[in-house]
Specification:
This protein is an alpha/beta fold. It folds into 2 domains: 238 residues, P-loop containing nucleotide triphosphate hydrolases (Rossmann fold), CATH 3.40.50; 85 residues, Rossmann fold, CATH 3.40.50.300. The chain contains 14 helices and 11 strands. A 6-stranded mixed sheet has the order 7-8-9-3-10-11, sandwiched between helices. Helix 5 runs parallel beside helix 8. The protein is globular and about 65 Å long. The two termini are 26 Å apart. Bound molecules: adenosine-5'-triphosphate. GO terms for molecular function: ATP binding; ATP hydrolysis activity; L-isoleucine transmembrane transporter activity; L-phenylalanine transmembrane transporter activity; L-valine transmembrane transporter activity. It comes from Hoeflea marina. It holds the Pfam family ABC_tran.
């Protein structure tokens, strides 16, 4: 039985993402009528990690994203976002039992995302996302797209009144800060020279970078990226890797990404969670996942369990070559999608 290999998976608590999780997805289930898109899924996203959610088409990845970011209400399960590194289990349980959407005590905050609306998840829980299909304001300039992302602090500074129009000092200061932040991110993503161009005029790869810059302008603790490398050429993919590593290292932002480009996934991920038919089939670092026969079977469509059994035995004997020497990049394997 394939399931019997569960003992081969890395022991749960030994990983950094289990010891210091910024996000915990717990027993998440999502049904669409009779279709079970996600089934009892649990995994952690480590603070400051780049975590990839991968799996064949239709595995349930985007559904998980939509649950985390509030676009779907899960059928069952809890999704816990933590602010601060000292969030106790008691704080989480107290918030859960009280029926609250979130609870903040000092520098610690717990946010139960399955209870929150999407705008609260972005505004309060500080979870930002990009989409599989780019969703920029095509007619607005690059700079305007970044300023719109900072609408909330600007409204707050104007006291939700005419404070902005009459130029209250607090509002002017907040507006300067927004422009500074926009300039900073345009520089980081190489779009400073295109600040005044309509976003819709940018080449595809630049639009993807602008989406990431826009998400970063909201100051997220967790950045969720849905297929950020889709449609990028190898040079642009490599620039994306550099950008994501910069965001994680310099800003401490945790990143959760869905990606089909195995080159990107294997190069930059600290942690990879693999779904197939809505269930988790593997969870570990890149070295573990790329040689996990269950992952290889799911990607290459090995239907005969005996083949996987044989691969597992060979793997136990240290012979990864029998499974095709592990999961390869899209270029090598001819595309995982
Ligand atoms: N709103 C919806 N209504 C009904 N079924 C849905 C809905 N959203 C997703 N599904 C179904 O749930 C399953 C998982 O879809 P999902 O888009 O999450 O997979 P995925 O892993 O992101 O796939 P891909 O890699 O192709 O984007 C699929 O069978 C899909 O048809």
């Amino acid at each position: 039985m394939i399931g019997d290999n569960k003992t081969a998976a890395p022991a749960a608590l030994q990983h950094s993402w289990d010891q210091d999780a910024v996000l915990s997805v717990e027993h998440l289930t999502m049904r669409f009528g009779g279709l079970l898109a996600v089934n009892d899924l649990s995994f952690n996203v480590g603070r400051g990690d780049i975590t990839a959610l991968i799996g064949p088409n239709g595995a349930g990845k985007t559904t998980v994203f939509n649950c985390v970011t509030g676009f779907y209400k899960p059928t069952e399960g809890r999704i816990v976002m933590r602010h601060g590194d000292k969030v106790s289990d008691k704080l989480i349980e107290d918030a859960t039992d009280s029926g609250e959407q979130f609870r903040v005590e000092g520098s610690s905050g717990v946010f139960l995302l399955e209870r929150m609306q999407d705008f609260q998840i972005s505004h309060r829980a500080k979870v930002a996302r990009t989409f599989q299909n780019i969703r920029l304001f095509a007619g607005m300039t690059v700079l305007e797209n970044l300023l719109v992302a900072q609408h909330n602090p600007l409204m707050l500074a104007s006291n939700y009144t005419l404070g902005g129009l009459i130029g209250l000092p607090g509002y002017r200061h907040a507006r300067e800060k927004s422009i500074e932040k926009s300039v900073y991110w345009m520089e980081q993503v190489g779009l400073i020279d295109r600040a005044d161009d309509p976003a819709g005029d940018l080449p595809y790869g630049a639009q993807r970078r602008l989406e990431i810059a826009r998400a970063m302008c909201t100051g997220p603790h967790l950045l969720c990226l849905d297929e950020p490398a889709a449609g990028l050429n190898p040079r642009e993919s490599s620039e994306l890797n550099t950008l994501l590593q910069f965001i994680r290292k310099e800003h401490g932002t945790s990143i959760l990404l869905i990606e089909h480009d195995m080159g990107v996934v294997m190069e930059i991920s600290d942690h990879i969670v693999v779904l197939d038919y809505g269930e988790k089939i593997s969870d570990g670092d890149a070295a573990f996942v790329r040689n996990d026969p269950r992952v290889i079977a799911a990607y290459l469509g090995v239907e005969d369990e005996e083949e996987v059994e044989a691969a597992l035995e060979d793997d136990a004997n240290g012979d990864a070559a029998s499974t095709g020497a592990g999961l390869k990049s899209n270029d090598e394997a001819g595309g995982a999608k």
